[in-house]
Amino acid sequence: EIVLTQSPGTLSLSPGERATLSCRASQSVSSSSLTWYQQKPGQAPRLLIYGASSRATGIPDRFSGSGSGTDFTLTISRLEPEDFAVYYCQQSGSSPWTFGQGTKVEIK
Amino acid sequence: QVQLQESGPGLVKPSETLSLTCTVSGGSISSYYWSWIRQPPGKGLERIGYIYYSGSTNYNPSLKSRVTISVDTSKNQFSLRLTSVTAADTAVYYCAREFDPGIAYYWGQGTLVTVSS
Questions:
Q1: DSSP characters over chain A
Q2: Does B61 sit within 8 Å of A96, measured CB to CB?
Q3: What are the pLDDT tens digits along chain B (117 aa)?
Q4: Cβ of residue A63 closer than 8 Å to a chain B Cβ
Q5: CB-based contact (8 Å) between B98 and chain A?
């Protein structure tokens, strides 16, 4: 099973700042199989990025994804108030499909 | 706009079977992949499995012996059965439509299922 480790566990930032979230895989993951989701309290997750770097429909361009192999990054260029949430990476290249444990982006 | 809605009992006794249904509106179920994903309270997400509208399935190996996902195209619904539940199966259960396998695009609001006597 591929284990995804997200860091940091919590990121405390102010609106307008840049957020850099890391997702590291225990073995190589195809870029086409790496997905990022955003989840706010009491809500279902929302698809942000698929294929490591493609934004889902309606996702603002301040969200970007990058990486390959075992290291992937989600960047939020300038945090808006609505971006404070938990972010999960997920791989679907190897069964079982697995999620990282999440990174919480909180208001500093 | 595609919408998904989970339904089923919110409380299940240990050793019994958890059964949930996801009703799809705003689009036909006769295409795409359809998934179940769960999230224990305060914890992360876990994929349970998915079904293609034709009926082919794929399950998380850790749950495979207890899980069945089925589809009813006439009702635009798909369902989850999880047998021999324990407290560890207490979670919010989400149904979702995959953009491609592994990429859950449309999600239901989720339903909390508690396993307790």
A1: ---EEEE-SEEEE-TTS-EEEEEEEEEEE-GGGEEEEEE-TTS--EEEEETTTEEPTT--TTEEEEEEEEEEEEEESS--GGG-SEEEEEE-SSSSPEE---EEEEE-
A2: yes
A3: 999 999 999 999 999 999 999 999 999 998 899 999 999 999 999 999 999 988 999 999 999 999 999 999 999 999 999 999 999 999 999 999 998 889 999 999 999 999 999
A4: no
A5: no
